[in-house]
Amino acid sequence: MNIGSSETTREAPHTVALVNSFNFQEYVLPEHKNYLDFSFLEWFIGFSEGDGCFCSRIEDNRVRLSFEIGQKDAKLIHKIRTMLGFGTVSSFTRKSERYWRYKVEDKKGIQRIMTLFNGNLVLPKKYIQFQHWVTMGKAICPPSFLFKEQRVHISLQTGWLSGFLEAEGCFYAAFRVKDKLFPDTWGFDQKFTLTQKDVYGESLVLQEITVLFQSNVKLHLVKKPTCYRIEFCSLKAHTILVNYLSKFPFLGRKKITFRRWWRIYLRRENPLYFKNEVLTLKTITKLKKLCSQINL
Q1: 97, 118, 152: which is the final residue of a domain?
Q2: Residue 43 and residue 54: Cα distance in Å, rounded?
Q3: What does the pLDDT look like over 114-144, one tens digit per residue?
Q4: What is the pTM of this model?
Q5: Are residues 27 and 99 in the same domain?
Q6: What is the DSSP letter of 149?
Q7: Which residue range(s) make up the domain with 36?
Q8: pLDDT by residue (tens digit) across 180-207?
Q9: Which of 121, 159, 170 is nearest to 244 (CA)?
Q10: How many other C-beta atoms can be found within 10 angstroms of the C-beta atom of residue 131?
Q11: Dihedral angle at the C-alpha atoms of 253, 257, 260, 266, nearest 10 degrees?
């Protein structure tokens, strides 16, 4: 049973405090680790809020907890295991496609996960899922563990958004030509998007993200009743993203996607690009191919 499912946690959360920074003072590194990489932990929390699952099951009349992330990106899953220094990695097949799973289910590992996420979550729905998960597993909580009734504000000064975008973000571009004789009619349609189901106020988090990217873009409903998307199309928002990801880069295959998208951004950023370009059929084919390969 996934404790985080909407069917099991529909009661509305009460008001919680909002803090401005992550706090890893209670997190205990595995014995063989001697360096706390704050940016990675922030990235990991953001990625987990997109793709992670706080799970539980009843076995031999006892509650068993686990934490899981499933991905097609095998190298990324192994990287997570290496960076954290605990948990296991396995593979499984779903609809004829191979996936990889990072999983924590031993007592020490679960206790580390508890102290890592406690007070450090951003999304309201993940906060509620984590709260239920901890409550069900209170028998194995670390000594002196106190659940923190707080969430963290999003900032461009932490790695959280990089992890969240790596899990949930999408990148898109297309090359358009109305008349190849007139450079003013040539250009790229380029954007990056985030989509979230609004369970406990996640649309407000999306709105916070629009502020970070200095955008007046509006949320639009993509699936009834409560699935919303934001699309960033402006060069200004793209410049903010490029600068942010230069400081807090993606860690998995999406960094290749972003690199391809970034090459198109560089052409848009340079106002002289099309004035210096001879738009032949070969050039048009090359630019369209560049766009089509973003998500390969």
Answers
A1: 152
A2: 17
A3: 999 999 999 999 999 999 999 999 999 998 8
A4: 0.90
A5: yes
A6: -
A7: 17-152
A8: 665 556 778 999 999 999 999 999 999 9
A9: 159
A10: 20
A11: -110
